[in-house]
Write a structure and sequence with these properties.
Strand order of the largest sheet: 2-3-1-4-7
Structural class: alpha+beta
Largest sheet: 5 strands, mixed
Strand content: 25-35%
Number of helices: 5
Radius of gyration: 17 Å
Length: 203
């Protein structure tokens, strides 16, 4: 679950908002995720994403979601916006809702969806409290699933009624950091897809 703070939702700022949304889409689709929900709440964009929805289901979906989160954190903050991301791993109920034809949406329900929402709210609170640009909070299950790819730092226990441990993923020293001026398509996705930035950028 993603929450991005935008300073202005006016028509004059529509190009910047479109740039943010297209950036989110690219980060999600590069790692074979699905964007299932997008809405506006006051000065925030609220976005829900899912990894592991057939036919794009992989053994490392947890790592893919964290990879997308780290890319988003870097690029969105580079654009001057604040972002809070919550990631949880587990079984959820998914299905198409809508009428016959193209007017359908992918709905996701379950306890893990609520956990990601709570993690996102904790991340947004940390951004406001620490005056930082972006935070990514993950649950204990996700932390265990991504240990092969990422180091994680323990943050503490959630402050809401549903208590659970909170962790945050850390960049590795050899992680590829894109240039802010043109972050796409030369974004390293840790070999999660067939695109290899080194082949297209020999330097």
């Amino acid at each position: 679950t993603i929450k991005i703070k935008l300073n202005d939702f006016s028509i004059q700022n529509s190009s910047n908002i479109q740039n943010v949304i297209s950036t989110v889409q690219k980060c999600i689709y590069l790692t074979h995720g699905s964007l299932t929900y997008l809405t506006k709440e006051q000065n925030y964009l609220f976005i829900r994403c899912v990894w592991g929805v057939p036919p794009f289901s992989f053994y490392d979906d947890s790592a893919r979601s964290v990879s997308a989160g780290l890319m988003l954190q870097y690029v969105i903050t580079s654009l001057g916006y604040q972002i809070g991301i919550g990631i949880s791993t587990g079984a959820s109920f998914t299905g198409l809702c809508g009428v016959q034809g193209n007017r359908k949406v992918l709905e996701v329900m379950g306890g893990k969806v609520l956990v990601s929402l709570l993690l996102m709210e904790e991340a947004v609170s940390a951004v406001d409290k620490n005056d930082s640009k972006g935070e990514i909070y993950i649950d204990k299950v996700t932390m265990k699933m991504i240990q092969k790819w990422y180091r994680c730092m323990y943050i503490g226990i959630s402050s809401n009624k549903c208590t659970f441990d909170i962790y945050t993923p850390m960049y590795k020293e050899n992680d590829f950091i894109p240039n802010v001026s043109d972050p796409f398509p030369f974004i390293r996705t840790h070999k999660y897809n067939s695109y290899n930035p080194k082949m297209n950028n020999p330097s």
